[in-house]
Amino acid sequence: MHLTLYPYIIDKNFRIYEFVSEGPAGMIRKIVRFDRIGPDIYNLSLGDLDEKTGKINYSIVSDNKDRQKILATVAVIVHDFTMKYPQAWIFARGRNKARNRLYRMGINSCLVFLEAEFDLYGIINDKIEPFTSDQAYDSFLAKRKKN
User: Fold this and answer.
1) By residue range, what is the domain housing residue 112?
2) Does residue 1 fall inside a structural domain?
3) How many domains are contained in the chain?
4) Max Cα–Cα distance, the chain, nearest Å
5) Where are the beta strands (DSSP E) in 1-147?
6) N or C: which end of the chain has fewer CB within 10 A?
7) pLDDT in tens, 137-147
8) Residue 32, Ramachandran bin (φ over 0: left; ψ between -120 and 50: alpha; else beta)
């Protein structure tokens, strides 16, 4: 499967990734972070870097008309992160239902790529179940398949 991606840079611990979104809203620096929230569980966060404050805004909707390219880039970043940390569980939750829907659409658009290497799960009402493309979830989990 061929994915169109943005090039990205990685910090020395493979926990923070940065790339630049390009579109009608201009050049927007995107940050993907993996924060440990439990034994081998990492929260995935995606946000825009505020150039003035140096802080990451996780709630902004930048609408740079490159959603698919951003989500594909994040999918490959998850792949790279789990190559470095193969035991990691990746947890992701949007700030609201609309953002979770966007994440589900992103997973669906890369599903062939993701299912080849990851076990994917959705969480709904605090219950974990195998991911299905047509189910609305509260959050998501992914774990690299064992070779």
Assistant:
1) 8-144
2) no
3) 1
4) 44
5) 8-10, 16-23, 26-38, 41-49, 56-57, 89-92, 118-124, 127-130, 139-144
6) C
7) 999 999 999 86
8) beta
Asked if the model's pLDDT at residue 10 lies above 90, the reply is yes
Mean pLDDT estimate for the chain: 93
With respect to residue 3, please indicate whether it lies within any of the assigned structural domains.
no
pLDDT confidence of residue 7: 97
Q: Is 102 helix (H, G, I), strand (E, B) or coil?
A: helix
Tokens of 90: 């990746």
pLDDT at position 25 over 60:
yes
Nearest CA among 146, 113, 111 for reference residue 131 = 111
Please say whether the dihedral angle defined by the alpha carbons of residues 94, 96, 98 and 100, taken in this order, is positive or negative.
Answer: positive
One-letter amino acid at 43 equals: N
Report DSSP letters for 17-43, one per residue: EEEEEEETTEEEEEEEEEEEEETTEEE
Residue 14 lies in a domain: yes
pLDDT value at position 131? Answer: 97
Share of the chain above pLDDT 90, in %: 74
